[in-house]
């Protein structure tokens, strides 16, 4: 866990180096949220579907987002965007279930990134296994802002891992997957999967995790940010 | 105004009357009425019973049957009247003392068996279905003539009207509605009869005109008596003599018996005896009902004879050689539209001619007789319209009662008591309504494809009742040793025997439905009586070889037969 | 966004009653408007925000709803709801939701909730019903001990004695003597600023050697403890014992409206039913019984203000009547000597059914073990005359229909009663049926139970399965119907041009009593109390469970409406009647009342079908 001040400095530094006002404002807004209680902070649970796991070569297929305000997932503001890709979804369709023809109404990656940059402004991202998702988003946003962009997120997988380790549990294969983690909190099993549902599932998991960590006490954003 | 408009008007007015009475009797200060010590007067209740009793069969079809078959038709008159007396005097008081409202409930309790009750329920439903089919046919005939559609469409319209009346409307079963219906139907029946009687014999009462001399147009006596004239006409045209029957003695005996005992087993009339609180009043109203029924029943033979003479004379003309189709009276053309009269000009002389045998060119449905009579006699249009309203009143009052028996038997006796004991009130009511609707649909089917004329269909219902329910009731009252095994097997075998005989001759082999093939010369209409004897026989033999009746049931039967504080003992 | 992307949520919501009644597009709109929250056991209670009411839909976990005084009202699990009462009533949340197991909860905002209520009648009805159920449930728990829940307003003395702050203590003492009270409220510029009691006069004036010209404000107790008139008596007792005081000014909207003294509370407690009954049993003559019976109206008022269930109120009042009757019989027997034979004092009608209300009249009779000779007749005539007149003087007026034990017609031997009942059953004339509705609700108040049982057993054996009699009874009970017209609008009764309102007794409770009686007689059930009858019928599977529960609820609800309406009439100085003006009701209560009447209507159709074989 990174200390609050260290995080603040880092964000301040990033803001200084930001070329566009928009990006600068983004970093500063994040900095302002760090000390707040997670249950009160503006969060944005996200999930991506990709053609593969390598941000260098693979592409984003879809993005699901759901904002969390005052500890509640706001479904009316939840969104799901399909993104056009070059070439075919190929073998990856077996994992995410998105076929080429599903992408007929999809938006271009440029439009998708502009949309996402807009949506994540002033919000702290939440994702399950966030490094992977962030890598793809950073790549896309860097193109959008013409500058390297660094993102931060609350990683529900990371939180879960730390919690289990602290309890000295032996981690079984797959124990940290989204579904398995949710099960430990008694959260319902969602049969269907897409980027949006997984984003919702991830958001709900975070709420459960924060309740478990805090035991009713306040937990600040900085404490759970990876 | 033409007949059609008048029909709409008069039928409309009578319906408004029924609905009005229903609303009045509901909204009115019924409570004060009760407190005043009122209750329903026995005369009123007698009228209501008579309305329940006199169905479309009595109103529409009976005079037709008598008119066409003469003496043979009188079996219906005798059987039904006798049955009513039997019911009112020998059965209703005992059943009443037993405290049971319906025949299946009596049988179920008397034979201490749910199975017996269920068998009785099924018999009752079966009988009601058949009976109601006759009503639908009657209503169909009325509508077809006055709305100038064919009989089938008439039945469909009738189904809709009866459904509205019996299932949706809240006006059935109210004594005063029934009283109004009796008034309408008896008025509608008597007016044309009196008119014709005056025209043909100069006597106001048709019952007297029946045995009187005919008069000519100037009002002078001709010296020819009505029945002689009719016998002469019949002989001339090759029919058997009007005053002599064509049916064998044994058949007449059996049909009369079936009708009589069947009447006594009919489920929907018995209930009327129980809606009067005091036994004494029940007897008085039964007596009044008999008077009110007799008014109509004694008129029937007269009306039948008048209209027969009139009909033959208008068709065959004064010379008895037939009249030209172009100059034929209006009523023939009107009824041709309904398909109930057909003319087949066999000798191509352009004349219509009615007789027995190969020279006959007219096919006339008997069920039109009462309805057509006013037209044949050239009576004013409003009389014709009135008869339509009367026919509807007769059909409605009877079918409403029957549908209630069917629907409540299905919903309460079959579903609630047997199949779905935990059913909610709302569902029970819904099933009752569905059962009533189904009853109407099935009755409508048989109304369109009738196995006989209205009165004959009804006669079958009576036969079924005679062979199944009547013996069980009688033995329940008068035998202390009859047990459930005997009663159930009697009912089942009696019903099966009768039903299969009827189905065999009426539906499967209608071409051999004549005296030569009948068992002992008994027609399907009369087989119910034999079925009844079979029922008795089976029941007694079975009961001999099965377990004895429990003591409490024996005590119960004894207490029914020997009255002990049976009601009006002394007033407080 | 395509809602199919919210599939798991839509699927779940769609599976819930009443959401299953929503159209596809409405459901989609509903699901999209949800927000999702997570509640952890660690925080004990779900934080219910008063300014932001929501419908809470439990997705997982377990919760329980408790009233503000901690009574358990409901346990909730997956697919259950909470928070709807304040959505429907617009009132602030008073219940608390305890988290038993961590859970996920969907929130539906009030706008969407209202939209769905407009969209779907079923949706609307479901929550109205649930709310009604919750309310009644709550009422059931509330009516516990009287002292803890009855309101101060029922006991306090109105029109308190007041005096200006600058008046002299002498003047105050004079006024107190005139009004024969032990305290006076001191007013400064229309506001309460203190209280002066007997004790103050003693301790601060006399004992200090002050003279009578001392201004009141120097002797009074300043800033006295006060309560509002709708505070609980329990709170008042607590306050008094904590501060060792005997007088509490009652203040509403800063205005002094009354004073509550510890004597008032003591007096109030004695109108608790048990105490009252005990008191009745201690009295040794008619005069003292009459004076004790003066407390009965107060008891009723207390019970009403304590929100007791109508069924319980009826039982409590009836048990007091029973005790009075018994005491009167015993006192008179002491005068007349031992009875010449065993007898039972029979209670009929509302006393029999145990649902007496205010100003009931007498319905009673006498059951004798055998035919009395002349001497015995004389004895029982004297006894019954004395008891009936005693009851009359205690506030139970003579029966206008003369159904009373003092009428020789209703003073009969066992065999006479048996044949009387048998005659009613065999000849169900309208008059017999009217009698039946009173006499068949009979209960023995005094006398050997074996004697009464031999009457009741015989009667029930006669009625059980006697379809003709039952059809007559059913028809008789169908003469009146609930006041619902076409399209379920209330039908108001009119007296000339004046609208009298809805007759809650004759078109509501009486109909349910009739229905329960027909069923009970058909099945030979001994209970006579309507609610008990229905429950017994339900246990014997004679009435469908759902129908039975609905009927009991409707009975309680209508009876409750009647009592609270009479309470309203009482406090607004209107003549007490059974007529309710629906315009005084909120739309929700109107809705519930309509539903209750609908239940009565359905039950009537039920007995019409079952017993009279028509519909």
From TrEMBL, chain A:
Keywords: Exonuclease, Hydrolase, Nuclease. One of its GO terms (cellular component) is cytosol. GO terms for molecular function: 3'-5' exonuclease activity; nucleic acid binding. Pfam families: RNase_T. It comes from the Bacteria. Residues 42-215 form the Exonuclease domain. SUPFAM superfamilies: Ribonuclease H-like. This is 3'-5' exonuclease. It comes from Shewanella hanedai.
TrEMBL record, chain B:
The keyword Secreted does not apply. The chain crosses the membrane at residues 6-24, 77-95, 115-133, 153-170, 182-205, 252-274, 286-306, 379-408, 429-448, 454-474, 486-505, 517-538. The keyword Repeat does not apply. It comes from the Bacteria. It is found in: Membrane. It is a multi-pass membrane protein. GO terms for cellular component: plasma membrane. One of its GO terms (molecular function) is symporter activity. Pfam families: SSF. Keywords: Membrane, Symport, Transmembrane, Transmembrane helix, Transport. Belongs to the sodium:solute symporter (SSF) (TC 2.A.21) family. This is Cation acetate symporter. It comes from Shewanella hanedai. The lineage of its organism: Bacteria, Pseudomonadati, Pseudomonadota, Gammaproteobacteria, Alteromonadales.
Automatic annotation (TrEMBL), chain C:
One of its GO terms (molecular function) is [protein-PII] uridylyltransferase activity. PROSITE patterns: CBS, CNMP_BINDING_3. InterPro entries: CBS_dom, CBS_dom_sf, CBS_domain-containing, cNMP-bd_dom, cNMP-bd_dom_sf, DUF294_put_nucleoTrafse_sb-bd, GlnD_Uridyltrans_N, RmlC-like_jellyroll. Residues 18-134 form the Cyclic nucleotide-binding domain. Residues 156-212, 220-276 form the CBS domain. It comes from the Bacteria. This is Cyclic nucleotide-binding/CBS domain-containing protein. It comes from Shewanella hanedai.
């Amino acid at each position: 866990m990174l200390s609050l001040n260290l995080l603040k400095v880092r964000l301040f530094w990033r803001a200084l180096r930001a070329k566009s006002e928009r990006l600068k404002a983004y970093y500063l807004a994040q900095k302002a949220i760090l000390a707040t209680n997670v249950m009160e902070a503006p969060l944005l649970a996200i999930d991506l579907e990709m053609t593969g796991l390598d941000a260098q070569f693979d592409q984003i297929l879809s993005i699901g987002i759901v904002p969390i305000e005052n500890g509640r997932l706001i479904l009316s503001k939840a969104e799901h965007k399909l993104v056009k890709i070059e070439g075919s979804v190929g073998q990856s369709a077996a994992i995410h279930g998105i076929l080429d023809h599903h992408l007929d109404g999809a938006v271009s990656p440029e439009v998708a990134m502009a949309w996402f940059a807009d949506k994540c402004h002033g919000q702290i991202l939440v994702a399950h296994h966030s490094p992977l998702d962030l890598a793809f988003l950073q790549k896309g946003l860097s193109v959008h802002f013409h500058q390297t962009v660094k993102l931060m997120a609350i990683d529900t997988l990371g939180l879960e891992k730390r919690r289990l380790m602290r309890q000295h549990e032996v981690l079984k294969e797959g124990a940290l997957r989204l579904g398995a983690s949710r099960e430990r909190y008694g959260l319902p099993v969602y049969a269907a999967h897409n980027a949006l549902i997984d984003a919702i599932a991830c958001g709900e998991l975070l709420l459960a995790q924060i309740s478990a960590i805090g035991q009713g006490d306040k937990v600040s954003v900085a404490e759970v940010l990876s | 105004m033409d007949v059609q408009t008048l029909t709409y008007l008069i039928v409309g007015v009578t319906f408004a009357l029924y609905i009005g009475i229903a609303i009045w009797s509901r909204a009115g200060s019924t409570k004060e009425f009760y407190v005043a010590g009122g209750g329903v007067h026995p005369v009123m209740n007698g009228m209501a019973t008579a309305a329940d009793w006199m169905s479309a069969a009595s109103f529409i079809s009976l005079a037709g049957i008598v008119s066409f078959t003469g003496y043979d038709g009188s079996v219906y008159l005798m059987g039904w009247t006798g049955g009513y007396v039997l019911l009112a005097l020998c059965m209703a008081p005992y059943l009443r003392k037993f405290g049971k409202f319906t025949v299946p409930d009596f049988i179920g309790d008397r034979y201490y068996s749910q199975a017996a009750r269920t068998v009785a329920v099924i018999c009752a439903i079966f009988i009601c279905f058949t009976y109601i089919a006759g009503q639908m046919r009657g209503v169909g005939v009325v509508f077809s003539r006055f709305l100038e559609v064919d009989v089938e469409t008439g039945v469909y319209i009738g189904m809709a009207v009866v459904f509205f009346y019996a299932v949706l409307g809240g006006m059935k079963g109210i004594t005063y509605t029934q009283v109004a219906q009796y008034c309408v139907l008896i008025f509608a029946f008597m007016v044309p009869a009196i008119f014709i009687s005056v025209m043909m014999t100069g006597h106001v009462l048709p019952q007297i005109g029946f045995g009187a001399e005919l008069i000519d147009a100037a009002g002078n006596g001709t010296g020819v008596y009505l029945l002689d004239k009719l016998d002469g006409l019949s002989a001339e045209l090759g029919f058997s003599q009007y005053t002599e029957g064509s049916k064998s003695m044994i058949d007449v005996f059996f049909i009369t018996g079936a009708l009589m005992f069947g009447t006594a087993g009919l489920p929907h009339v018995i209930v009327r005896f129980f809606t009067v609180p005091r036994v004494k009043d029940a007897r008085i109203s039964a007596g009044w009902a008999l008077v009110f029924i007799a008014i109509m029943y004694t008129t029937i033979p007269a009306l039948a004879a008048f209209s027969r003479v009139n009909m033959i004379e208008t068709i065959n003309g004064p010379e008895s050689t037939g009249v030209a189709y172009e100059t034929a009276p209006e009523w023939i053309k009107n009824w041709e539209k309904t398909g109930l009269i057909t003319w087949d000009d066999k000798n191509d002389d352009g004349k219509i001619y009615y007789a027995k045998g190969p020279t006959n060119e007219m096919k006339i449905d008997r069920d039109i007789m009462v309805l057509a009579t006013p037209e044949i006699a050239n009576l004013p249009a409003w009389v014709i319209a009135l008869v339509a309203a009367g026919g509807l009143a007769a059909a409605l009052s009877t079918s409403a009662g029957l549908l209630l028996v069917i629907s409540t038997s299905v919903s309460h006796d079959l579903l609630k008591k047997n199949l779905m004991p935990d059913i909610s009130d709302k569902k029970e009511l819904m099933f009752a309504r569905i059962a009533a609707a189904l009853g109407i649909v099935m009755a409508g089917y048989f109304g369109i494809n009738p196995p006989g004329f209205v009165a004959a269909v009804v006669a079958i219902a009576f036969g079924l009742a005679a062979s199944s329910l009547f013996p069980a009731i009688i033995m329940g009252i008068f035998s202390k040793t009859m047990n459930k095994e005997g009663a159930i097997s009697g009912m089942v075998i009696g019903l099966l025997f009768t039903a299969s005989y009827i189905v065999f001759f009426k539906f499967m082999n209608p071409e051999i439905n004549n005296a030569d093939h009948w068992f002992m010369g008994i027609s399907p209409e009369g087989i119910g009586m034999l079925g009844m004897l079979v029922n008795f026989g089976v029941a007694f033999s079975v009961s001999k070889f099965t377990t004895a009746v429990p003591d409490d049931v024996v005590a119960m039967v004894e207490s029914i037969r020997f009255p002990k504080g049976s009601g009006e003992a002394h007033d407080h | 966004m395509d809602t199919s992307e919210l599939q798991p949520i839509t699927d779940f919501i769609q599976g819930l009653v009443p959401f299953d009644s929503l159209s596809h597009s409405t459901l989609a709109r509903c699901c999209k408007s949800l927000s999702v929250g997570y509640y952890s056991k660690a925080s004990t209670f779900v934080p219910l925000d008063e300014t932001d009411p929501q419908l809470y839909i439990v997705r997982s976990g377990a919760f329980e709803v408790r009233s503000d005084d901690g009574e358990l009202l409901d346990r909730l699990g997956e697919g259950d709801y909470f928070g709807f009462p304040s959505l429907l009533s617009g009132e602030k949340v008073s219940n608390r939701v305890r988290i038993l197991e961590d859970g996920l909860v969907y929130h539906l905002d009030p706008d969407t909730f209202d939209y769905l209520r407009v969209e779907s009648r079923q949706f609307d009805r479901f929550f109205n019903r649930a709310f009604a159920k919750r309310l009644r449930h709550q009422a059931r728990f509330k009516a516990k001990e009287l002292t803890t829940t009855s309101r101060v307003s029922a006991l306090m003395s109105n029109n308190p004695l007041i005096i200006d702050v600058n008046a002299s203590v002498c003047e105050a003492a004079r006024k107190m003597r005139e009004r024969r009270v032990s305290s006076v409220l001191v007013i400064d510029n229309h506001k309460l600023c203190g209280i002066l009691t007997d004790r103050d006069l003693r301790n601060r004036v006399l004992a200090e050697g002050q003279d009578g010209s001392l201004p009141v404000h120097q002797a009074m107790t300043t800033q006295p403890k006060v309560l509002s008139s709708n505070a609980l008596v329990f709170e008042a007792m607590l306050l008094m014992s904590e501060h060792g005081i005997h007088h509490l000014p009652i203040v509403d909207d800063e205005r002094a409206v009354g004073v509550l003294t510890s004597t008032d509370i003591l007096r109030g407690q004695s109108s608790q039913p048990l105490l009252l009954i005990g008191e009745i049993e201690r009295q040794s003559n008619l005069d003292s019984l009459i004076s004790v019976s003066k407390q009965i109206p107060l008891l009723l008022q207390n019970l009403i203000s304590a929100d007791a269930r109508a069924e319980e109120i009826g039982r409590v009042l009836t048990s007091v009547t029973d005790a009075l009757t018994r005491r009167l019989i015993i006192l008179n027997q002491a005068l007349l000597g031992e009875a010449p034979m065993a007898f039972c004092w029979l209670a009929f009608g509302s006393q029999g059914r145990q649902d007496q209300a205010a100003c009931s009249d007498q319905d009673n009779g006498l059951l004798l073990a055998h035919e009395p000779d002349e001497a015995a007749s004389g004895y029982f005539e004297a006894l019954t005359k004395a008891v009936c007149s005693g009851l009359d003087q205690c506030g139970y007026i003579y029966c206008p229909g003369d159904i009373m034990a003092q009428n020789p017609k209703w003073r009969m031997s066992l065999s006479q009663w048996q044949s009387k009942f048998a005659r009613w059953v065999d000849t169900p004339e309208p008059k017999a049926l009217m009698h039946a509705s009173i006499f068949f609700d009979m209960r023995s108040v005094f006398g050997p139970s074996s004697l009464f049982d031999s009457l009741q057993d015989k009667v029930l054996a006669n009625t059980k399965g006697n379809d003709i009699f039952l059809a007559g009874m059913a028809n008789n009970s169908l003469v009146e119907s609930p006041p619902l017209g076409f399209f379920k609008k209330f039908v108001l009764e009119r007296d000339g041009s004046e609208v009298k309102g809805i007759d809650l007794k004759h078109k509501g409770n009486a109909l349910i009593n009739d229905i329960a009686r027909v069923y009970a007689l058909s099945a030979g059930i001994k209970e006579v109390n309507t609610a008990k009858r229905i429950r017994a019928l339900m246990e014997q599977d004679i009435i469908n469970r759902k129908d039975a529960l609905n009927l009991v609820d409707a009975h309680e609800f209508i009876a409750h409406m009647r009592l609270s309406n009479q309470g309203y009439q009482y406090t607004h100085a209107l003549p007490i009647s059974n007529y309710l003006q629906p315009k005084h009701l909120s739309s929700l209560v109107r809705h519930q009342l309509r539903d209750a009447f609908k239940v009565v209507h359905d039950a009537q159709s039920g007995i019409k079908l079952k017993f009279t074989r028509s519909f």
